[in-house]
Write a structure and sequence with these properties.
mainly beta; 10-stranded antiparallel β-barrel; about 50% strand; elongated
């Protein structure tokens, strides 16, 4: 039976004041948890309660709305019992409490993040990139215990993210950004199933490195203007918008390095769009150091 591993992350200069905005995503999180809990996959086994680890992806201090991430990870050892009306006598709610608490962990961290939208004109490959940068981002995350595929070093994670963004800095040359007066406002969400390989130990407070990559689905809704900045002289701003919630392909990757309580996390994910004139790539990138406490 599959044992889900979820983590969520909420980031803000003052995180508490935006928690109410996460309610729709928490509802989706609960539905996903219920579905995964009853999904029977013969390749997977449940984790022991004392096999604990933690995985966080992406942080996002955006102006106004900040963002939430959930993810499901896997790691393994023993055969688990069924969940509701389980063979060990647990009710579903008892199992749910055990799953959410036993072996869970809490991580706080600090780092940097960037949200970006890159636009490419199909006719001549002219490009423009507009970003929102935050040199100091704060992270809070909760994670349940994880599992791997049987006794291998391979596992999987579902990266779920919802965020709003306010982009106002354009890249005028490599890693050089300037306010050109253009603005794009929007929001994006994605679900990216990702497979990872882990080097190192699997115990709590362990030493390990995880590298993962995945492809999934995402949506993005935005409106504003951007200047194509890949060649001089710059042209006039062009208006761009996407008002639909049609699902599009989304890709992502992550790297986690952990030494006992301390971890380094790097991640990038987001959906890509095309219309008759332009191609759009939405990206959320984060790098941070975190401290983890295991319950």
């Amino acid at each position: 039976m599959i044992r889900c591993y979820f983590s969520f992350m909420f980031i803000d200069r003052c995180p508490g004041k935006h928690l109410l905005r996460t309610i729709p995503f928490l509802t989706a999180f609960g539905i996903a948890l219920f579905y995964m809990a009853f999904l029977d996959l013969p390749l997977l086994h449940a984790s022991e309660p004392d096999i604990r680890n933690e995985r966080i992806v992406n942080s996002a201090p955006f102006t106004g709305q900040r963002f939430l991430i959930a993810q499901n990870n896997s790691e393994s050892n023993t055969t688990g019992a069924a969940i509701s009306g389980t063979s060990d006598g647990m009710t579903f709610w008892e199992w749910l409490w055990d799953y959410l608490y036993t072996g869970a962990s809490l991580t706080v961290g600090v780092g940097t993040r960037q949200a970006e939208l890159e636009v490419t004109r199909k006719s001549d490959d002219a490009t423009g990139k507009i970003v929102q940068r935050d040199e100091e981002a704060y992270f809070i995350s909760y994670s349940t215990r994880p599992s791997l595929f049987r006794n291998s070093k391979f596992g999987y994670t579902f990266l779920l993210n919802y965020t709003t963004f306010k982009l106002d800095q354009q890249e005028i040359s490599k890693d050089v950004y300037e306010d050109l007066g253009t603005r794009i406002r929007g929001k994006t969400a994605y679900v990216v199933p990702s497979f990872f390989y882990q080097w190192g130990q699997h115990e709590p407070y362990a030493k390990f490195v995880r590298l993962g990559i995945g492809i999934g689905l995402g949506v993005a809704k935005y409106q504003g203007d951007i200047i194509m900045t890949d060649a001089l002289p710059y042209g006039a701003p062009i208006s761009i918008s996407n008002g639909s919630y049609d699902l599009k392909a989304a890709a992502g990757f992550f790297l986690d390095a952990r030494y006992r309580f301390i971890g380094l996390n790097i991640s990038s994910a987001g959906p890509s769009y095309k219309d008759d004139t332009y191609k759009y790539d939405v990206r959320d990138i984060a790098v941070y150091l975190g401290f983890t406490y295991y319950f």
